[in-house]
TrEMBL record:
The keyword DNA-binding applies. Keywords: DNA-binding, Transcription, Transcription regulation. SMART domains: HTH_ARAC. It holds the Pfam family HTH_18. One of its GO terms (molecular function) is sequence-specific DNA binding. Residues 182-279 form the HTH araC/xylS-type domain. This is AraC family transcriptional regulator. PANTHER family: ARAC-FAMILY TRANSCRIPTIONAL REGULATOR. PROSITE patterns: HTH_ARAC_FAMILY_2.
Amino acid sequence: MEMYTKKGYLNSEFRLFHLTDRETHEIAYHYHDFDKITIFIKGNVSYMIEGKSYALKPYDIVLVRHGDIHRLSVDNSVLYERIIVYISPNFMDAYHTDSYDLSFCFRKAELEHSNVLRISSLEKSSLFRSIMRLEHSFSDDGYASELYRQVLFLEFMIHLNRAARKNRLEFIDTQNYNLKIQEILQYVNDHLSEDLTIDGLAGRFFISKYYMMRLFKQETGYTLGQYITQKRLLLARELILSGVPSTQVCFDCGFRDYSTFSRSYKKLFQESPRETLALS
């Protein structure tokens, strides 16, 4: 069975990149095991995330949660410039107290069913000004320049969450998606531990199973069966890393047979569930 590839690797709490190029190749559907923020600066780019397609405008902010299956399409006839941040769950946890939570923007985006945030008025926005300072810091090679960029990134995250809390950002509700498929995606992600069959889903959503399978592939780029398996395995890894025994995880994530679960898990992550547990 085809699986989606993990892209990008994070060896520290977070990594910050400023990238400019004209030769970005078409990137296949993939996922990360960390959260990702992209600040789009210029270019002609479309982001496809969990069945939705977003045409980006300058200084749009793209939030991709760990495990979100996504791809992007880039027009290489124009320069593509962006700031990309890879963020580990541990980094977000370190900035979560009773008085603030830097992951609020991700949760708000999930509630709004949108992955792209747009600043409505750039000239009046403190968030936009913090982005500009962060962007300009990449040309600063003075004393402690890398540390300075980290400080500016934290400033950006504070302004981003303030704007999200005060509704000063537009959560883009793209029209480029199929409502029925979005309902199926939401249901699958909310019921991964349950029995999810093609026939059962078709009956629940009053749709021909063959039409549903064809439409799902057309709208998302992957089959419904692949999607369910991948999401279950990503959830399984998260639970195992939190210390849950792998035999319990197998059944908690909707698998009915441990040997099938173990084989699929090892194929995706190149290690067995017990080897992952040893790392937790």
